[in-house]
Specification:
By secondary structure, this protein is an all-alpha fold. The protein is built from five helices and no strands. The longest helix is centred in the middle third of the chain and has 40 residues.
């Protein structure tokens, strides 16, 4: 829940930022000076790129959570990875179980469930980049199927 609040707070801050920077960009363009116009245009483009990136991340979060809930309802989220007292996955256990999830995804390359479980295993092993890639693949497969 705190991640959702954080994401919402960032989105609100982005809207405020875009409004303030947008106003400043209009002021720069209004001067008629070539360098000021270039700065004004840059100030308009950068927030648009930032808004796109945040939108993309929010959409990823919503879609991945929906898939995890679906998989959880089916009883497929138990990875069999030992956890520490803190609730975090034990790295050695995650590394030991990882090959099983990779083999499952390779055996069923069109299964969003296999790719989501692989992403969860990557995450448990601490490889966030590959985890996000596998979860993105799961989202694509689920949407196509």
């Amino acid at each position: 829940m705190t991640a959702k609040v954080g994401a919402l707070a960032m989105a609100v801050l982005l809207v405020i930022y875009v409004a303030l920077v947008g106003w400043r960009a209009v002021q720069f363009v209004g001067t008629g000076e070539p360098i000021a116009i270039a700065i004004g245009i840059a100030l308009l483009v950068m927030p648009i790129i930032a808004a796109w990136a945040i939108w993309r991340e929010l959409a990823f979060g919503v879609r991945s959570q929906a898939l995890v809930k679906r998989l959880e309802a089916e009883g497929g989220t138990d990875l069999g990875i030992e956890t520490r007292e803190s609730g975090r996955a034990d790295r050695a256990s995650a590394d030991a179980e990882f090959a099983r999830f990779r083999a499952e995804a390779e055996a069923e390359p069109e299964s969003w469930r296999a790719w989501l479980r692989l992403g969860m295993a990557y995450d448990a092993a601490g490889d966030r980049r590959r985890a996000r890639s596998a979860v993105r693949r799961a989202i694509e497969l689920e949407r196509a199927g």
